[in-house]
Amino acid sequence: MFIVAIETSCDETAAAVVRDGQEVLSNVISSQIEFHKKYGGIVPEVAARKHIEVINPVIKEALERANVGFGDINAVAVTYGPGLVGSLLVGLCAAKAIAWGRKIPLVEVNHLEGHIYANFLNSKSKILSFPFISLLVSGGHTMIILVKGHGEYETLGRTRDDAAGEAFDKVARFLGLGYPGGPVIDKLAKRGNPAAIKFPRPMMDQGYDFSFSGIKTAVVNYVSRLTLHASQVPDLVASFQEAIVETLVEKTIRAAKDRNVQIVTLAGGVSANSSLRSRLQKRGQKEGLEVIIPPFEYCTDNAAMIGCAGYYKFINSSLVISHSSLSLSPVASLRL
Q1: Number of domains in the chain
Q2: Do both 97 and 29 map to the same domain?
Q3: Alpha carbon 275 to chain centroid distance?
Q4: Which residues, other chains included, contact 236 with Cβ-Cβ below 8 Å and sequence gap of 6+?
Q5: 66 near 25, Cβ under 8 Å?
């Protein structure tokens, strides 16, 4: 079964062709980072216009790389939220056009759900059985989710303020390190001492919820008390990153043990962070848990994960829209 998938929830225009839910035949991503760097963040108007410019070429390239045509496609999977409404609308319009033109089903996919399903594209995915705990960490979300089955989710904890990725971006902007902040801090932290500064671990012993605005404020207060030299920055960001990573990992492991779950997965853009990947693997091994992490290319926003989630939704539920009733609308704020 061939699914063409489209993802335009934020600033990446992505299309992919996925066969039988796991075989990625193509995964094309057009990034807008260079257009948003000078603003220090994503400008929704700019993002939507850039999606319009490249959506058709990206879909065409995905089909060509997969060596398939529209006539071979069985369904279209598309992200409908959460995200920037203008950006989502571009992907939705393209998906509806394909579904209507080819008289094939349209499968709606929650962007957060897509990130979870990126783990099914891992080489270890054959051992991924339900239930499992998923730590979903991105620029907009930080959540611990108990995945009970296809489409069955229980959110155990979420951030009460800033998401982890948001905290990375804000600290990087404050320090003048550039945008996006996560990759810059991850790279710079490798040269620093993560134990140099003891930043707080908010809510560490309070359930599964998170709070990262306090860590961000602690960095600002620390810098304001001294004259920061360039040589001190690696230690600073390494200590900041350590506080976030330790909090994420310890709460996730605790959730798995409390729920007697043997498999832990990582999802979302921040799952590309090398320290988080390494620490979660080590803690999981220590506790006898199987830790599954998506390949780097499926961590950040991409369409392959949407195609994977769309496939399982298509074969396991009735939440598929007929080509004759394309009423799906973008949703800015959406939960699992």
Answers
A1: 2
A2: yes
A3: 17
A4: 175, 192, 196, 197, 219, 222, 223, 228
A5: yes
Same domain, 93 and 151: no
pLDDT tens digit string along 159-190? Answer: 999 999 999 999 999 999 988 899 999 999 99
Calculate the CA 34 to chain-centre distance.
20
CA distances from 299 to 98, 116, 274, 302 (A): 26, 10, 12, 8
Could you tell me if 123 and 50 are in contact, meaning their C-beta atoms sit under 8 angstroms apart? no
Three-state secondary structure of 49-80: HHHHHHHHHHHHHHHHHHCCCHHHCCEEEEEE
Q: What is the pLDDT of residues 316-333, one digit of tens each?
A: 875 566 655 578 899 988
User: Among residues 56, 47, 115, which one has the least CA distance to residue 85?
Assistant: 47
CATH number at residue 281: 3.30.420.40
Could you say which DSSP state residue 125 is in?
Answer: G
**CA angle, 276 then 123 then 68, to 5°:** 120
Round to whole Å and give the CA distance between 90 and 312.
24
For residue 196, give the nearest of 225, 228, 238, 230 by alpha carbon. 238
* Among 324, 320, 271, 333, CA closest to 151: 320
Mean pLDDT of the chain, nearest integer:
93
Contact (CB, 8 A) for 109 and 92: no
Within a domain: 332? no
Q: Element (H or E) spanning 243, and its range?
A: helix 233-258
Same domain, 170 and 233: yes
What angle (nearest 5°) sits at the alpha carbon of residue 308, between those of residues 110 and 137? Answer: 55
**313 φ/ψ angles, rounded to the nearest 5 degrees:** -70, -40
Q: What is the pLDDT of residues 47-101, one digit of tens each?
A: 999 999 999 999 999 999 999 999 999 999 999 999 999 999 999 999 999 999 9
Q: Which of 53, 52, 90, 68 is nearest to 16 (CA)?
A: 68
Q: Report the C-alpha gap between 161 and 209 in whole angstroms.
A: 10
How distant, in Å, are the alpha carbons of 43, 52, 99, 122, 333 from that of 91? 17, 9, 12, 26, 17
Query: What DSSP line would sit under 11-41, residue for residue?
Result: SEEEEEEEETTTEEEEEEEEE-HHHHGGGTS
* Within-domain flag for 194: yes
